[in-house]
Amino acid sequence: MSRITYQTYTNVALNATGIASAVAYSGGGYALTAAGAADSLGHLITFANLTANDHSGKTLTIVGTDANGDPLTETHAGPAANATVTFAGHYDTVTSIKIDSTTGADTFNIGWTADAVGANVYPELTRVPVINIEVFCRVPSGTPTYAVQYTADQTPAGLDSTSWLTHSVLTGKTATADGQVTFPVTALRLHITAAGPVNMTVLEPFHA
Question: CA nearest 206: which of 14, 1, 48?
């Protein structure tokens, strides 16, 4: 007996204006023209100041969802003059970006990087064995850069990247590869840092 979880993603490239281009403050925040990269992955979100005015003393608040569809929100200091800030979380969708005081007529680009993560895969921990998991990643075309990450955190969703460790074999890969997880984990996920397709199969064998 076994359980198979299959995920297929095509990570899109960095797009610094994919969510808003040269947008100015209005009504407490910024009008968004798109909700995100629309590739079912959670991406790092960037907020770029296009002016010489320093807004680092202000506080940005981003609201959205992660690759699991769970709510995700955080605050971040605004950008300095001609600078870009990157939010910590990986966002599949962005609902709003607000700021605690006006930035006047200054304009900003809002977009995403190619650093993205897939939805969590949760191993079945109530069966035996639970420490013999095969992870097979197939690259059908191109050369995306990817890794597999795992955690033993009981609440792996959220903003804390220190909850996740990178698999010792499945890291920095650009072609089809596989590896095993031989110890209990609460979740696995795919981490892609360059554009392209990656399909991940997680195979968990069970005793009958």
Answer: 1
Distance CA 78, CA 84 (A): 9
> pLDDT digits over 70-103, tens only?
999 999 999 999 999 999 999 999 999 999 999 9
Peptide bond into 129 cis (omega under 30): yes
Q: Would the pTM of this model clear 0.90, i.e. be above it?
A: yes
- Sheet with 2-11: list strands edge to edge: 2-11, 196-205, 133-138, 177-181
* Domain boundaries along the sequence of the chain: 2-9+118-205, 13-116
pLDDT in tens, 94-116: 999 999 999 999 999 999 999 99
CA distances (Å), origin 31, targets 27, 120, 196: 9, 30, 29
Helices (H) and strands (E) in the chain, counts: 0, 15
CA dist., res. 30 & res. 105, Å (int) = 11
CA distance 77 to 59: 5
CATH number of 2-9+118-205: 2.60.120
